[in-house]
Amino acid sequence: MLEGPNLYFPRAAIKLTLDISGLAAVSEETAKRFAGRIGLRSARPGSPDSGFRQRFALRAVGRLVRAVALESGATRLAVRVRPTSDPHRIVVAYPWRHRTRAQEMGRAVADVLDAVLTGDVDEAVGAAAARVADTEPGPAPTTLTPRVPVVAVTGTNGKTTTSRMIAHLARTDGRHVGWSSTDGIYVDGELVEAGDFSGPSGAGRVLAQPGVQLAVTETARGGILLKGIGLTRNDVSVVTNVTADHLGLHGIDTLEQLAEVKGVVPRITRSSGWAVLNGDDPRVLAMRATLRARPWVFSRDSASPAVRAVLDDGGRATTLIDGWISVIAPDADPDPLIELVDVPMTLSGLSHFNVENALAAASAGLAIGLPRAAVVEGLRTFAPGPEHNRGRMNIFSVPRPGGAATVIIDNAHNEASLEALTEVMAGLRPEGSRLLLGLGAVGDRTDELITALGEIGARASDVVAIGHKKKYLRGRTEAELEDLLRAGAESVGVAHVPAYPTEVDCLAALVGQALPGDVVGLMTHAEQDGVFAWIAEHDGTVDSPDVLREKVRAAAG
């Protein structure tokens, strides 16, 4: 039950995953008889279990859904049919206005497919339509139409940081801001309810908070696929990027399919609003083709073809010019907002990901109507520590005999985010010091992705260890994860990678080996509170923007 806009329709829909093994296996004569009953008079089903039969099944099942709907009294029904990686499974989706009747139609369609095997197709279609017609309509969708402006943020990496930055910009302007995310529901920076609210319920919870003047919603892949988006529209959308993560789940096997899912968010941006797109990511930029809204791209390259193309279409662009975050409009001189070195989140430009997040947040803030001065001040005052951006590239100094080591805590969870973490680690390492990395993986990632994490981590660091995440094994064993991560490390010549039962144990072991000037990075998901408590217990302190700037300069020589 998809309660709101989704991968298939811009409104609530039913998604059926159907086993078509029976239809694929029956004789050509039986398949033709089925086709005739649903109005496909000239169909050519092809031989059993052939590619032609699968194509026939896609067409026939879509026609079956329409036939049942028509015979049950519906005037017309939009239907989407898609293949999956399994040739005997297909996905069918159709919009709904009445829950109970729409669910019954799904069951009825499945029963007709079963009847193909017995040859009782004529009776089955009529019986299915009668069942649907006799079913009580049931309640309507719960999709909300927002009464306050909404900024919706999606993407693979950077969603949470970008959402937090946008909320901070709006609060700098004095607005009461509600924000939903993977961490919980926040109002004006205060946690109202903990939990993962990146699905449709999060948007509803935020809009229900009294006094909220602006809503910022973090929208994850899983929520779009399993529940739909909880709002009929947004005023500004942001797509940070599309990189490999969660592939192989819920029928999403490729980056192109993942981009299609993320593209639902800008697709429902109102026509008077703005869709803020990463111009350096071709899959994100391609979402322009589906927009009703006006395009606003961000790019680290002011000469990017994406910037030129969007400006030619009357859009906007936020980019870097001479080290300044600048906004460009058609037929106008660039507007320099703030120097990159004065945006603490970018670590003096060291963190390319956070440079992009800052560009995206500035674009969204201006697009939603925040004053220029508030956007500039918000970028200047949003700090990279736990106070503003907990768990995302938080950097500490932890005492060691004779000096201090740098410790970076980050929610890195895929290849791109791990590369971003190691990039920052390298940028903070003085000459002659070492990089020590605590690896970890969530169990529902593919074997290939987990192995790649081991390879990336081992190649980029001098010392590597594994810190397990018992809360996120998700069907795997610790031994399986160790084997995959070690296989990746061994592919780049690193053997004997130790493993520790928790993230805290891993951090303690790495810091225990660290010398003054060394940089320790930890991929942290399961034990964020425990990790921060351990750092505090060992007299670690959050690096201020000034301290970070000095570390970057020292590392650069």
TrEMBL record:
Residues 391-523 form the Mur ligase C-terminal domain. Residues 153-364 form the Mur ligase central domain. Keywords: Ligase. The keyword Ligase applies. The keyword Signal does not apply. It comes from the Bacteria. One of its GO terms (molecular function) is acid-amino acid ligase activity. This is Mur ligase.
